Protein 1
Amino acid sequence: MLGAVETRSVSPVFVGRADELKALNNALARAAAGEPQALLLGGEAGVGKTRLIEEFAHAACREGAVVALGGCVEIGADGLPFAPFSTALRALHRELPAELAAAAAGQEQELARLLPELGEASRGRRPDEDGMARLFELTARLLERIAADRTVVVALEDLHWADASTRHLLAYLFRTLRSGRLVVVATYRADDIHRRHPLRPLLAELDRLRTVRRIELGRFNRTEVGRQIAGILAHEPDPAQVDEIFERSDGNAFFVEELAVASHDGCCSGLTDSLRDLLLVRVEGLPEDAQRVARIVAEGGSTVEYPLLAAVARLSEDDLIEALRAAVGANILLAAPRGDGYRFRHSLVREAVSDDLLPGERSRLNRRYAEALEADPTLVPADERATRLATYWYHAHDAAKALPAVLDASVEARCRHAYSEQLRLLERAMELWDVTPDAVRTALRPVDYTEVYPPCGCDPATTPLRYLDLMAEAAVAGRLCGERERALKITKRALRLLAEEEDPLRAAWFWVQRSRLVQAQARGDGWKELATAQELVRGLPPSEVHAEVLAMVAAWSMLHEPGADALSDAQRAVEYARMVGADDIELNARLTLGALMVDAGDIEPGLAEMFEARDRVVERSVAGVVGRSHVNLPSVLEGVGRSKEAAEVLREGIELTQKMGLLDSEAWVWTNLSESLYSLGRWDEATEAALNAHTTGQSAKPRGGGSTRLAHIALARGDLAETARRLAAARTYFGTHDPVSQNVLPLLRIAIGVAAGEGRLLDARTALYEALDSGFPPGTQRYGWPLLLASAAAEADARGLPVAEPGRADTVERIRTAAKSLPTGAPIWRAYEKWVRAELARAEGVTTPDEWFGVVTAVESLERPYDLGRVRLRLAESLLLSGADDDARARATELLRLVRAAADHLGARPLGDAVALLAQRARLTLGHASTASAPAPADAVESLGLTSRERDVLRLVAAGRSNRQIAETLFISPKTASVHVSNILAKLGVSGRGEAAALAHRLRLFPSETPAAHAVG
């Protein structure tokens, strides 16, 4: 065995790295102050990344932080799904069991996908679009909650081995960390990141985030190498020896260690310049049994459990322990951190030993691993069992054993929402399919391995598994993990195979998948594919596939071509889904049906249908439909003018989508809430909701919705430059591949407003003509009426201008004709009809108080203060133009005062300017808010210049709430809460939250409330 120096091949003295350690410690300090930190640590293999992380971890522990380490696990060429996160969470579970249980409360079934110790992961639910995003969101919030009251360091090592799901989760975590005393640092081997390495795009993406800091670890200089050798040898080395080792190692810390030990043992002169030989020389100096054990560990994975190693080595216990003692004494192997197994001291040695195995030797070792694990599954942790068994059998080149094992692992990956790994395993299964004996294949059953393609008349427990079943699973997995090009290729191959057999239902199912993929890839609207699927199922008896096709067609038609056919498809989808017991499809179809009924004028029955579907969704916690039920129902309510009801449903939707981690659905809920709050005159809150939509949305279209709302608010407030910027952003987010009226018409309405505001009437007409040429399909009246109103008002405002006269009569007539085609079945639509008619009359120079009085009466019942202010302005104008006797002037003056108050409250500058201009023209005295005669502020808070939202925030600050608690109470983000607090401190002229709270109590700004009462909430 090696001498005493060999046990000190790692220097006990930490050498260099002062700048890097300072950066890590600074991040720790910022995290301790409540600012979460994200760092990437890169460097070549052997440069000292792990040693630096260990030193930082010790320093963090001395500062009272909780440190959780996790490493990416490599088995052969495969990575375990979420391995570093599972290991880190397991460490937190050991250190903070009660705190982690409290942070995970209510979400144990979802989070058990990463940490099985929390319980049984929920199963039986088909994969949905939001499953992985939901898991990611819950994981991020879990870490934030754990780190709310203590500093937590999560260190994830060896990202170059990370599976795709781990990379996706890390990217999500780095993008969305908002609060908590949390440091997340991840390491990777920089020299492994070649051009096509899967980590390379992630690093490029993270480099663009200002919140992520990347640290590159360089090699040691000669002085540092000398200090390292001195630490290893426990005495000052000979300068010539330092020169030689520095030259040969080129400053790589690990090679310095190996060369120093080899030199001390007197074998340096016998080494070749081959790096591999350098790494193998000490392994080859071990006793034969120790070398054999090293080869077994090299092929077993990053860490091999002792019981598994014993089963594979087939040595007596004494011989095995003696072999391990020799390998550990030579610093070749180390005991695993958990003390339950062994790993190589450095992965470079493991790779060298593994590469030195003969092909037959490698497959034999993998077979032994597989046989041992198959005989006793308890030899490895439960969450690793399926993946490792599949890997071992695959590398043992035994297709009969590998295919079922790979399929088992794919099911495990699916249950963990590790769809990238599921896709990889399914592609491996398809590779094995043709070389697997028929007897093995015919014994496989769809019920055990697949779930996306419904049985449709066959018994999945007795029907043999088909190659097409694997293709179906792979297509869905590819869509869910973002590998849509691969999924499209799979569906194309499947349809080519189906062209040779008569299976219209399965073919229709694959066409539905292609429709989803085409839309997701922005290659079209997906209708051609859906129409093909619809034709394939036409005339067939009810089935789950048939019901899904009809539901998809109805939902597509609702957005693109609503009408009688869409209504009929939705009704049949509900009927078929009920007949075959497909609850999720039925609930989705009922939401579509209800919306189409409302569009057709059957308002109350349609809303009742949607409310009932919503109640069932909430009762059953159907994650795949919760988002849609709380987006579509309030959207329809808002469309018929019931904004308060819409806002109530949307508040419930925010709570549910946040709880379930449905980020894109949450973004759409925020968008719709912004619209309803705008209608109700709560514009500051509407702005916050739209910003939340923009920041929460993970895909483009929800962000487009948020940008549209922000443009709408900016237009009403007179900021045309901001409106144009947000309008351009919304158009970019929505794209041009799939135009739908609910996106196109609001953007055209905003474009009309911007053009009119800038005096570009001809451009406003161009936008109007674009809308009129496309027409207003049934169900688009909620977007059509405001657009026609904007155009009519623009024409009226431009009356008399030379540029307006050519084409004005034709434009007015086209607007009038289009208005006649829109339904007026709801009070808000009737109000719009009267308003448009009055604006067109004004555009023709005819305006009467009676007509505008009718408009005001219609709008007053809608609880829309901005709209009411606009029509009151027109009524005041018509009164002044009608003869302007004293009574008319008095009525007009009172109306203008009301409109000005509303404009000031909303921040609607153009409306306020119009009031001032009309009063000036009519020589009316309205008074000024700043004079003594003006009404006094409603309370002391308003006198301080605080907005209504800042009032709410100050109330919670005075009650001692943190930014995170304020955000949760007011349904805003912690960052938004922080901005409000900063604004409040500036307006109050105080330096901190404590002074602001003291001032609020001293001035008795909230006399009816006590801090204790707030603290309870």
Note: Residues 1-8, 267-273, 929-938, 1008-1017 have pLDDT under 50 and may be disordered.
Protein 2
Amino acid sequence: MPRCTPRTTLDRLRTPRRFPKFLKAASICVLVAGLLSPLTQAAAAGGTAGLAANDYCGGQCSDILPPGENGNATLAQILLNQVFGTQPDHAEDQLGPYSNLAAGYSTLTDDKINTFFNDASFGVASDQVASTTKPGGRTDVTIVRDKKSGVPHITGTTRYGTEYGAGYAAAQDRLWLMDVFRHVGRGQLTSFAGGAPSNQGLEQEFWRNAPYTEADLQAQIDSATANAGARGAQALADANAYLDGINSYIDASDSGRYFPGEYVLTGHKDAITNAGTIDHFKLTDLVALASVIGALFGSGGGGEVNNALSLLAAQSQYGVTEGTKVWESFRERNDPEAALTVHDGESFPYATKPDTAQGEALPDAGSVAQEPLVYDRTGSAGTAKATGASATAAATTLTSAKRGMSNALVVSGKATASGHPIAVFGPQTGYFAPQLLMLQEIQGPGLSARGASFAGLSMYVELGRGQDYSWSATTSGQDIIDTYAVELCQDDYHYLYHGTCTAMDKVERTNSWKPTTADGTAAGSYRMQVYRTKYGPVEYRATVGGKKVAYTTLRSSYMHEADSIIGFQMLNDPDYVKSPGTFQSAVQHINYTFNWFYADSAHTAYYNSGDNPVRASGVDAEFPVWAQAAYEWQNWDPATNTAAYTPASAHPNSVDQDYYISWNNKQAKDYTSAPWGDGSVHRGNLLEDRVKKLVAAGGVTRSALTRAMADAALADLRAEDVLPKLLQVVKSSPVTDTAAAAAVTKLSDWVTAGARRKETSAGSKTYANADAIRILDAWWPLMVKAEFAPGLGTDLYTAFTANLPIDESPSAAHGPTGAHAGSSFQYGWWSYVDKDIRAVLGQPVQGGLAQKYCGGGSLSACRDILISTLKTAAGLTAAQVYPGDDQCSAGDQWCADSIVQRALGGIKHGRITWQNRPTYQQVVEYTSHR
């Protein structure tokens, strides 16, 4: 029986108050004792599993994925966790090592890497085998789990058996999470898991982006497999075998009563009688899951209506000519000072500004209204929290500032101590409990890989390593979404398509919920409604030149959520990927917008994936265009949403560049990314500066590159790259005000110390330079507004903040997980401040803003603004700067920044100190090649 004593290694989250009081009593041990015997899954007798012979990494491949591999918990384990903080085996054993790197990286050496990472070698040594399972009693597949982390190592003698084992292992580790997200993808989360405002917002965010019917989901499977020949047929067979494994585990856990306890707490199963069902998974569930992941991480673009609104505001403020010039300077389409992933000067023009725009459909002033999604609210669906969640979800869906995240540092063997390339890379996918990703090793006919996959899509490793190569990805964000203005006819629900009045297609979801043990939200319901056109779903209504229009968004991956399966299949195939060229060929089959990186023992490579549509001549991708044949994508077929796409050679790509860095920064010269903010200061600079310095010195090691990543992970981008210039203005004359002078001293000392948000010592929960950090956190928004709002005017300043938020500090609430998400400094006005302040100082600026804003360009007036806002900021208390939330008390700076594993199930984990780094991360250096 699990012990009934709390774990104290990590800072525990408090027990949610919604759990009944009897669950908090000491007598829980008696209750759990009665539940444990039928709820414990028996593992097969331990066997032996040696290290694989097909591993060319020489023990130099490592990985980490917090909080832990085990994301399933029985009812008994959930109750113990809620009351006493106990953890199921392998539920959080990767959280401590992951967190500890923040304090331990400065003295890291190669031989200590696996203190903070897992050994990612193939296979399991015989003395490290924790369990051996023959899933479903099959003889053609074995799942071995290691003692240290509980990762499943799946070995099959047949292709079917191998994929069956992958599905079984996925359900063992993430069944509840997989069930949650298949309902998210269908817009049915609240009916399944409860009506909490966060659940309402989540299902609305993703269903607005991909409002598919069951027939749509099936059609995508048919299309993806039919168009890919033998590989398509194999993918379909793999997916069916994978589903058989999932469903076998569902049946076994149901009859054995060791299924995830959340099914009881949400009312789907009865703990006493075992009544209720856990629905089997089907192929369309996989597409629903893929639509969520693609929308969250791999669909760059959108925001054209917001762009139009800010352009109109600029033209209203300055006149058409000057206003357009001002708008373009803030847009930074191709900023010459931007950090680049392909930095050898090669140009890859895409979505560039046309000489003369054609077909633009800018809205009439004041006419734009967002299309409602939610109707007929009842009960708790009508509360302020619920409507606020809806507003946030809509804003997140419609912005071009997608929270893609992820970073990569890759160094050529020419600059390493061993002569072999080194890579430290991984995706930032947020922090959840259980984690969205899961680790596995899969070995079978045509399959040989270890790494991470999104739960429910793990028939292949999606990010990880093969026999003699590793690969990873970051979100790229190039524009594959366009906005069309469809002219209405007859009424608000018909539109002109090639001159014919055509009815819109209405798709609906009605969800209702009632209180459960897990979610006490009062009963409620609502109906979601989306109108679809051949040009995509309707997102806004407006008038253009007095004509009533609907603005729709068309995404090249819309109705093609399953297509990328072929690329992932290739990445797992040791007979396909053997070189940089074959790697690039594989990822060309992935239609989502990602930057892909590769390293083997001799080469490195990069490729930017995505179905980039070929736009009609003269179309400016920044703004809405008329839904007319002349402005459609070339060769566009609305029946299949296919078009002509830019060739592979036009995508940023490279082999054996001296180094690559990526942190969602600009890919290459002339390659326009959809989000704003790719300017002179970007978080990519935090990697660029460190890696460039390492490469110049030579002799790079795995630990040195890991230290560079970890140091950047604690850096405050504003303090490292912008604050020194702000202080230069402030210090341009003696600072006589005592309060301002004290603040300047603290900020200067922090910059000298490295501008990091780092604890005084491991576990202290107090930052070094805490006062300086507080001052900058308070100063930045005050300073930006005082610097720019007077010159831009209130309307234009507000419009620009809708295009690009001014700040994204670690304590800020942003993205799908809100606050405590780790990822920071992706979007903000740091480049604008940098360029403006340098211009005021008289320093050279490439691609500068159209005007000088701070103090109207006067150094003394700018200094006065900075000192005035600095004094105000310095006078704000910690409680005012960090007001507290459901995790932290007001004034707790460390806690405000801290990372929380957001609970998607019943198991809670402790907070860890802030780090801005990938969730899943690899450190690799191959010693040989096949």
Note: Residues 1-50 have pLDDT under 50 and may be disordered.
Protein 3
Amino acid sequence: MPPRTRTLRAATVAAVLALGTSLLATAPGAGAAEPEPLAVTDHCGSQCADILPPGENGNATLVEILGNKAFGTHPAHSDDQLDRYNGLVAGHTGLTDQKLTDFFNDASFGVAADQVESVTKPREDVTITRDKKSGVPHIKGTTRYGTEFGAGFAAGQDRLWLMDLFRHIGRGQLTSFAGGALANQGLEQQFWPQAPYTEADLQAQVERIRTTEGARGEQAMADAQAYVDGINAYREKSKKGRYFPGEYVLTGKIDSITNIGEIQPFGLTDLISIASVVGGQFGGGGGGEVQAALSLLAAQQKYGVEEGTRVWESFRQRNDPEAVLTVHDGTSFPYAGKPDKARGTALPDAGSVTPEPLIYDRTGSAGTNKKAPVDAPAALEPLQGMYDDGVIPEGSLPGSGDGAQKRGMSNALLVSGKATASGNPIAVMGPQTGYFAPQLMMLQELQGPGISARGVSFAGVGMYIQMGRGQDYAWSATSAAQDITDTYAVELCEPDGSAPTKDSTHYRVDGACTAMEKLERTNSWKPTVADSTAKGSYRMQVWRTDYGIVTHRATVGGKPVAYTSLRTTYRHEADSIIGFQLLNDPAYVTDAASFQQAAGHIDYAFNWFYADSRTTAYYNSGMNPVRAAGVDAALPVKAEKAYEWKGYDPAANTTDYTPFAEHPHSSGQDYYISWNNRQAKDYSTAAFGFGAVHRGDLLDNRVSALVEEGGVTRASLTRAMEEAALTDLRGEQLLPELLKVLRSQPVTDPALNAVVQQLDSWRAAGAQRKETSPGSHTYTHADAVRIMDAWWPKLVEAEFRPGLGDGLYAALTASLATDESPAASHGPSGAHSGSAFQYGWWGFADKDLRQVLGQPVKGPLAKTYCGGGDLSACRSALLSTLKEAAAGPAAEVYPGDDSCKAGEQWCTDAIVHRPLGGISQKSIHWQNRPTYQQVVEFPSHR
């Protein structure tokens, strides 16, 4: 392929000449051959569009990295989707179907002859054609092997460094690979205990797919091997040609002058490792039962067992009758509900819970931020320390950092043809996976024997399109997070019969005192140009039992126990490959029913959505275990035969799973929305926060109104999505009730009344966080937004803490944070991550305020908290906190960080593409929107 680099200024070239002319090597030129015509029919008729900022190209040579740091230049196609994505903020109000490609890519199959930028043939049986506009690889193979080899080769071209990072994250070896920065230490300490494996464990998962999934399994592993072969082919070529990613030089893997060093070969076990990270981030569900037990105990301590349990259940909201649902036609799908009489629950003794230690034998800089910069060549000094804060900033990945126990993002809006202008269904949908440079996913088109699709795949596991479109259908997913992870209390023992302690490393299995299995990972690092963290090392250690990985220790009824976490997808990290293979096979997916069957082969917890020219459909996937009768899945359970999963086999971590028909599913509903809300009636939630107000309401209210009006178009559905993406959930859903309380009596303080008027004006204008004009970096209702940001945490505490008491309030906020505004630096993916308003006390506040106001409430809180249930007292509490919030200066509300100065409101909200390599990107306007997004409307079908 030709060099994918913009021209660098002469000064940059001169600077790197000191390191040797070899650094100027770029990818070899590709032939100018015309692309072969596609042997498939594209039924979308130019009505499929997609977008994935910042750009397709995620690799950068050392020269390109230097140019970016010195002059802000970018490799070709590394940022050319960023402005289009950002442009929808201002452009959505006047959006038409004809203007969609101003903000999205044309997602048609193939590349028009006059739009071909390059053609590469890594083998005779495969062609990689890249288009001029976005550089997306369109991979066409004449053999199955060649097609998958091409996919791997293209992945190497676009994401080689990223794939290398993630195979090391999955193995718990990030610090040894990329440096010992505190954030790197924290990230591997978050992920490795969730999926600790030996190399034999990883290989066993490969063999299990190959040998137990029939012909599909054999084909999947053959495809995976071809994909790995393609990655390795590019790895070798780029190394010999000296156009490999520059991060390998900066982290000390390859010498910039001699080219001595190695990019380690990829293997099938690397794909399992990467899959464990992806699944852990986006496809998990459940867990957290120990913290739930602690909040239950706190409630029982305050109110007594019976009343405390009732209070706790009203906050837990497993099946809140006011919650927004994806399947809204009343169909019931009972799962993981509260039993009438629980059996086997293992609540800890008060004060006995301690977390299981993970880190041992620290040396040097382990656990510290000590730096020892190396003596870098002068030309590389601009890049020195670029990973000092971590190769992936702490908390940026969903499933890591303070929000590690909370997973799930992404949204979907689908409308039946009965309500569209064309009579064909329309879908606007995609995953929210955070914002990185490059993205965790990559766009590609795959055309070959048994494969025909375009869309995104997570880098390193891109044998198949994971979300995208086929010849006459499209599909996408949102994280579902239903309960597929349970906590067991294993009774500890000593093999010599002596009294066990909480530190014992043996436990009882069927009466026998059995040794836990110790799994260890020792990491060491030394400073490099990229990461100045001083030399150090440590050892990570976890204990594995037949009931999962030990997470805590405690006593139950005075007896020492270890709490373990057992998820159904452990030891099955890549089994979902079969489902993705089916979704890419045009011979298999021919309608909604066959789509649902394909999605049923995906083991992780996802909500899957489908649209073709005739109908829309939905299916909730996941390895839902069949639990013993009477077991309460929301709390820890005794590790005894009577209470374990039905048919459970610890050797393979297999069990009986709920059948296809018991998973929420639907076809042809008038519309579907999903923003990680509850799936269906009686399908119990696995966490707190699924009550009367959820960010899904922002979509549901808009889409239901569009459907009622009729004549829905791709543009109007996209507008609805974008309006929700710019709206403050608190302003739209909570502020009306707050104002009713405040105005239940006249607000006599003129200054405070003016503040109330400001908030009301913002609400009336749509409660949006949107700048006055493109590039102004000032919100239209900036002061009202500032007041709400300052007020919300204060009003929640004033509303609930006096009634709950310090202990119970602290326990409940540990299970569910009170706020996740765009300006908050916490949540599942940290600050500047776009995703917002998923986790918070919105539903609690909504019910409580309506109870104070005397309004009807289905599924009320067990007690009314604001003002102790007295409207006047509640009003006083809200007014006093509002006055305090209004007086708070912007510099306190928005304290600043490494991207923004104190007081910069727009900047605090802004999306930052966190650099995973040496290329950084500009900040863009906040949007609560999928990272990758499709807009599709198929006019015809096979």
Note: Residues 782-815 form the longest helix (34 residues).
